[in-house]
Design goal:
By secondary structure, this protein is of the alpha/beta class. The chain has four domains: 102 residues, Response regulator (Rossmann fold); 163 residues, P-loop containing nucleotide triphosphate hydrolases (Rossmann fold, 3-Layer(aba) Sandwich), CATH 3.40.50; 72 residues, Helicase, Ruva Protein, domain 3 (Orthogonal Bundle); 44 residues, Arc Repressor Mutant, subunit A, CATH 1.10.10. 47% of the residues lie in helices and 13% in strands. The strands form five sheets. A five-stranded parallel β-sheet has the order 2-1-3-6-7, with helices on both faces. Helix 1 links the parallel strand 1 and strand 2. Helix 13 crosses helix 15 and helix 17 crosses helix 18. The longest helix is centred in the N-terminal third of the chain and has 30 residues.
Length: 462
């Protein structure tokens, strides 16, 4: 159970006793008869809500409110007063009070105020998490393309609607695993369900545990205030754990316990926090192989892989290249200058292997929009590292498209004729991979255009 800690500062002992009697059934309540005593409590305890009297002996509660907000800007403060003075209420709210109630107040009113502040705190925590998530979220709102490999995955995803089963998304880097996770979340159509994304590999090991589980004030050096963890923020929704394979063994064990028990402890905490969320994990490595190598827990893999989805690499989505290129060109072009892409470049993109997948395609196009000369992107504009990689892949017998095996009609030919035939076949393959652009093929081959034409002109059957 998650406890809400309340501090009440008032110089009336009978009021403090009555207030504590009402609230202690549901909350942790601490009282103080003076401002100085209350400050000491704030320095040593984690307080979620403060009740502060506007008149503490000779001291003005509004002035004290200002001092408290300077020291604890995120602390919610409700002002208490024996009189209903409109100007006093305005001043209190202006100086940072969350609410204002008059004494004496019925028990149900006091409880209602606390419930309201508790709900506001949850909303504020969720809002801050959503703002952070929106800032990190890619602008790509949906999937581009209609290739069979993509539609098969999306069809499988549809079947998960209404289920809370854990999902493991597998696929190479840059294929859109987080986008698929957001798609799964969006299928539920409940805008109140939070989606919290965590890149496990991007957060240092010594910080990841506190990021996921949160911590209490004073849990370690520098923990000056409580921090709500990602699991707590994801309560009632989905948490996306990207690159789950990067979790160290101790954290794998703690995650497994949280998934099994549906509860956990903040770092430095003694009260268990009960949560209910769906875990969507992603990896770009074979977790079963990681298990065999003792790098990943088998029992955790079972928990995460209730349902498994695989995002296809871009090289298996050639039919989607045209739409993806058009989308990224529109996304990254200035309004007054939209670049066109030549058919030869589109053909090159379809033959290229895209080791970085969609992320690489977007980065390449963004660079070409900026650096390409003229209104049309042509093969000559492509970065050298990209064309050199493709040229090498033509020669590589282990590549996806090796040079076709040579067929000889005779076996009594001279070595010169055989070498000539091999040269011609290779040149034709390079021209094919450049979309028929002889100039680009010559550049890749390191020869002149005339050499290319001369070699092909002399082609003969061997």
């Amino acid at each position: 159970m998650l406890l809400f800690n309340i501090l009440c500062i008032d110089d009336d002992p009978s009021f403090l006793l009555a207030t504590k009697s009402v609230l202690k059934k549901k909350y942790m309540v601490t009282t103080a008869l003076s401002f100085e005593e209350g400050l000491k409590i704030l320095e040593t305890q984690l307080i979620d809500l403060l009740f502060l009297d506007v008149k503490l002996g000779k001291e003005n509660g509004i002035d004290l409110l200002y001092k408290i907000k300077e020291l604890h800007p995120n602390l919610d403060v409700v002002m208490l007063s024996g009189e209903r003075d409109p100007q006093l209420i305005v001043n209190a709210i202006r100086d940072g009070a969350s609410d204002y109630i008059c004494k004496p107040c019925p028990s149900e009113d006091l409880l209602a105020v606390v419930e309201k502040q508790l709900k506001n705190r949850e909303i504020k925590d969720r809002y801050e998490a959503l703002i952070e998530d929106m800032n990190e979220c890619q602008s790509l709102k949906g999937f581009i393309g209609k290739s069979k490999s993509l539609t098969d995955v999306l069809d499988s995803a549809k079947r998960l609607k209404g289920y809370n089963a854990s999902v493991l998304i597998e696929g190479e880097s840059g294929t859109g695993k987080e986008l698929l996770a957001r798609h799964l979340h969006g299928l539920e159509e409940d805008v109140r369900r939070p989606f919290i994304a965590v890149n496990c590999a991007a957060i240092p090991d010594n910080l990841l545990e506190s990021e996921l589980f949160g911590y209490e004030q004073g849990a370690f050096t520098g923990a000056s205030k409580k921090k709500v963890g990602k699991f707590e923020l994801a309560n009632g929704g989905d948490i996306f754990l990207d690159e789950i394979n990067s979790l160290r063994p101790e954290l794998q064990a703690k995650l497994l316990r949280a998934l099994q028990e549906k509860e956990f402890y903040r770092l430095g905490g003694t009260q268990s926090i009960q949560v209910k969320f769906r875990v969507i994990a992603a990896t770009n490595v074979d977790l079963q192989e990681e298990v065999r190598n003792n790098h990943f827990r088998q029992d955790l893999l079972y928990r995460l892989r209730v349902v498994s989805l695989t995002m296809p690499p871009l090289r298996k989505r050639q039919e989607d290249i045209d739409e993806l290129v058009a989308f990224f060109i529109k996304k990254h072009s200035r309004a007054d200058q939209k670049k066109l892409v030549s058919p030869a470049v589109l053909e090159f993109f379809k033959q290229y292997k895209w080791p970085g997948n969609i992320r690489e395609l977007e980065n390449v196009l963004q660079s070409l929009i900026i650096m390409a000369v003229g209104d049309k992107i042509v093969l000559a504009d492509l970065p050298q590292w990209m064309t050199a990689t493709e040229q090498k892949s033509v020669l590589d017998p282990n590549s996806y498209e090796a040079v076709p095996e040579l067929k000889f009609s005779k076996i009594d030919q001279s070595l010169k004729n055989v070498m000539q035939k091999m040269e011609q076949e290779y040149i034709k393959k390079v021209i094919e991979n450049t979309g028929g652009n002889v100039t680009e093929a010559a550049r890749l081959l390191g020869v002149s255009r005339s050499k290319v034409y001369y070699t092909l002109r002399d082609e003969e059957t061997l």
